[in-house]
Write a structure and sequence with these properties.
The chain has a single domain, classed as 2-Layer Sandwich (Beta-Lactamase), CATH 3.30.450. The protein contains 7 helices and 5 strands, in the order E-E-H-H-H-H-H-E-E-E-H-H. The protein has helices at residues 25-30, 34-42, 56-69, 78-86, 88-95, 148-170, 186-203, and strands spanning 2-9, 15-20, 112-119, 122-128, 134-140. Helix 6 (148-170) packs antiparallel against helix 7. The longest helix is centred in the last third of the chain and has 23 residues, at 148-170.
Length: 206
């Protein structure tokens, strides 16, 4: 159940942030040349539909920040973006529509949503905060399905780490509350990628 993509959606299901996970330790062993990593990142598909795309100014700011911090955000593929976008309908079925106030949105006693829907060779899991910000994780389904409880425990730990990372980002007085996560956010992205790598290494037995 390796993590392939992570998305953060706002209270109205608008995209706030999306990225792909970095290579695991096993993949790093095969890619010892730094040029291979750079070329792999540059070959990522662009967001031609504009679901999660930034404007040119944000791209320039992100590149300048990446050059200073040494961290390079890995963009999600178009296929993964479409899967996240398709899962929004299922989220509204589980939580109720954001367009109207329903009892369904307030009767939940936990942030944990659980499995939202299976999609091809992936499973999409969700987590919602008190302020109705959603975290979605796109997990690649393994050939041998592990014990469900153990799998969900790892995913819950991942979402808790992401929630903590998001809270610390919003505590920045220069960040916009419930707004799109934009550069400069090197600390947020580095911490987020570290949590994703830690999850992948845990489920892969590294």
């Amino acid at each position: 159940m390796s993590l392939q993509c992570l998305a953060i959606l706002g209270s109205k299901n608008e995209p706030l942030y999306i990225c792909a996970s970095g290579p695991t330790e096993d993949e790093n062993d095969h890619n010892t040349d730094g040029k291979n990593d750079a070329s792999a990142i540059s070959q990522q598909a662009e967001d031609v539909f504009g679901f999660f795309g930034d404007n040119d100014d944000d791209d320039d700011a992100s590149k300048q920040e990446a050059a200073k911090s040494g961290f390079i955000k890995i963009p999600a593929s178009i296929r993964h973006e479409m899967m996240i976008h398709a899962a929004i309908d299922r989220i509204e079925e589980l939580l109720g529509s954001h367009r109207k106030i329903t009892w369904k949105r307030f009767q939940r006693g936990s942030h944990w949503i659980g499995q939202i829907c299976p999609m091809e060779e992936y499973d999409i899991y969700g987590y919602v905060t008190t302020s109705d910000v959603k975290f979605l994780a796109l997990l690649e389904r393994d050939g041998i399905v592990p014990v469900k409880k153990r799998k969900e425990v790892d995913i819950k730990i991942l979402f808790t780490a992401i929630h903590d990372c998001y809270v610390r980002y919003t505590l920045n007085p220069f960040s916009k509350i419930r707004g799109k996560i934009q550069p400069p956010c090197a600390e947020f992205e580095t911490t987020l990628q570290s949590a994703m790598d830690q999850y992948n290494n845990a489920v892969n037995g590294n």
